[in-house]
Every structure is written in structure tokens, then in C-alpha cells.
Amino acid sequence: MPASLIGCYARALREPAVWKRAARLGVAVGLVQVALNQGDHWAQGHITRLVVVKSASSLLFAILVVLLASASTRVDTLRSTPPL
Question: Per the domain annotation, does 43 fall within a domain?
């Protein structure tokens, strides 16, 4: 019987490898996103509170997306592996 979906996500989110992957890939993707979306403001020195908030939001959103993708991949593995 496959493990519950919520239990698998809880287990996946307790694994350091999932968080490390999310941090590594999320920061890389987030910085590219910031460069594309707000890079002109940063390069010209037109830094306002809104630009800082948008930049931080882009970075955090990218990390969240990669975290959920990594956890989902781990959940798929956990649910397809038969218990011992």
C-alpha cells in the first residue's frame, strides 16, 4: 500500500538534499530572473524600495518553485519504492 501523499511530502521536506538542491538551483534561477526583470534598474542605480521588493520576491519565488519540484520528485520516488 503506497504511503500517504502528505506523509511523503513531510518526509521529503525533512531531507537536507531537497533543501540544498532548492537553494542551489533556486538562487541561480532567481538571480537570472532578477537580472532579466530588474537588471536595468540595478545597472542604472535607480534602486527604489519597489525594485528591492521585486528582486527579493523573484529570488524567493524561484527558490520555492525549485523546492516544490525537488520535493515532488522525491515523493514520486518514495511512493514508487515498495516498503521493506
Answer: yes
The reply to whether 65 falls in a domain is yes
Q: What is the pTM of this model?
A: 0.84
Q: How far is CA 69 from CA 24, 29, 53, 55, 61, in A?
A: 13, 13, 24, 21, 12
Residue 62 covered by a domain: yes
35-56 residue pLDDT tens: 999 999 999 999 999 999 999 9
How many domains does the chain divide into?
A: 1
Name the percent of the chain in helix, strand, coil, to the closest 5.
85, 0, 15
Tell me what pLDDT residue 1 has.
43
- The DSSP H or E segment spanning 4 is none
Residue 9 lies in a domain: no
